[in-house]
Amino acid sequence: MFDRQSITRRSFIGATSAAAVAPYFIASKALGDAETPPASDRIVMGGIGIGNMGRGDQNAFLSRKDVQYVAVSDVRKSVREQAKGKVDGHYKNRDCQAYNDFRELIGRSDIDAVHIATPDHWHAIMVIEACRNGKDVYCQKPESRTLREGPLMIETARRYARVVSGGSQRVLQDYRKLVDKCWSGELGPIQSINVNVGPLSKLCNLPAEGAPDDIDWDLWLGPAPWAPYNPNRCSGSYSTKGNSWRSYLDYSGGGMTDWGAHHFGGATFAIDVRDLQPEEVVFHNDNGKTHLTFKYPGGKTLTHNCPGKENLEVEGTPGETREAKPVPEYKGTGGIYGDFIHCVKTREKPFRDIDYAINTVTVAHLGIVAYAVERSLKWDAKAQRFVGDEEANRYLDRARREPWQL
Fold first, then answer.
1. Which ranges carry the Gfo/Idh/MocA-like oxidoreductase N-terminal domain (predicted)?
2. CB 208 within 8 A of CB 227
């Protein structure tokens, strides 16, 4: 297995051996000073997928003094060169390496951790390969594209003893007041919560256009079915209503998984079921208006698009008491990014540990299947299969193009 401490020690020894030649350089860069921690205390990082959200993630990690940012990867030349330029400008050198193929980045033995913000259909493959290569991982939500991917990601993280954090900052930061109400006992025992989010993703029939030289189109598609280039097919727009990869079935679960990762994450955290998965999804069709009820072990429920209910509307039990519980917090300093870096150093579980993140997106995936087959489903969380419904089980995963298999 990759040993981060041995790498930093070797780097440190190699650097200090050059002190006779450049003592001031070594003192400021390797040994640290008032502004910069020594090399042994810095996490060496690279970024994969640096457009839109990836750019924000890069800024957050690059600004940390306990991170040494050394590499970027993106299938768009202009994006990766811009990202490299930002790193080089920050450190006032030209040391950052830019890669078209993410495998070159995660194959580097000097890199401790990576952040990933590619389209969703790439997440599982990249997280699993990064873990196998000894990297800790911060992966943007939604962490998985299919139900089958989630358990494989968790298993790989545990097998290789990797720290893997999901990337939804809104779960704690945006929904904290709601979480405090629920966990303080103010609302009594919690019965249910509602989430309004959508739409589902759809097929993409955009016309073919000539791919610009700036993009490696085949690598952008990766495990997704081959399709002709169209700029709106691969647009990183945050819209889930069309003309962005977030809208299309081959790359995303649409708003159900995209914004759903935030909303379902906040909802399951608030009602304290984030370490569980639903055991049943009840499909409702009221005069053509469909909605869902997710039933959890222990009796709590989560509804999706329930008529007459607001987003994150909670039903408690007035007049009854519930013992207060302390709300889990980020570790370290600097929000969800600092939480991840702290855990890379200490080997603790981050706030959005991969199992919590997968439990969240599993709710969205289960809902997508229920809407697809238009009936209620029972879910065996241990077996990771629908009970007695082989049609539904065909939705557990999607075919992948060679050589991108799990």
1. 48-165
2. no
pLDDT tens digits along 18-41: 333 333 333 345 555 556 777 778
Whether the CB-CB separation of 339 and 350 falls below 8 Å is answered with yes
DSSP H helix total and E strand total for the chain: 14, 13
Q: Fill in the amino acid letter for 26.
A: I
To the nearest 10 degrees (0 to 180), the angle between helices 335-346 and 53-62 is 60
| pLDDT tens figures, 325-372 | 999 999 999 999 999 999 999 999 999 999 999 999 999 999 999 999
Q: Please count the other Cβ atoms lying within 10 Å of the Cβ belonging to residue 168.
A: 27
Cβ atoms of residues 102 and 76 within 8 Å: no
- Angle CA(268)–CA(273)–CA(277) in degrees, nearest 5? 95
Distance CA 2, CA 10 (A): 13
| Numbered ranges of CATH 3.40.50.720 in the chain | 4-169
351/172 Cα distance (integer angstroms): 9
CATH class of the domain defined by 4-169: alpha beta
Give me the phi and psi of 110, to 5 degrees please.
-90, -5
Strand segments (E) across 18-66: 43-48
Quick count: other Cβ atoms within 10 Å of Cβ 189? 14
- Residue 114 near residue 138 (C-beta atoms within 8 A): yes
**CA–CA separation, 350 and 344 (whole Å):** 9
Where are the domain boundaries for CATH 3.30.360 in the chain? 171-200+252-393
Query: Positive or negative, the Cα torsion across 250, 259, 118, 370?
Result: negative
> How many of the other CB atoms lie within 10 Å of CB of 350?
24
User: How far lies 356's CA from each of 149, 165, 221, 362, 399, in Å?
Assistant: 14, 9, 28, 10, 26
CATH of domain 171-200+252-393: 3.30.360
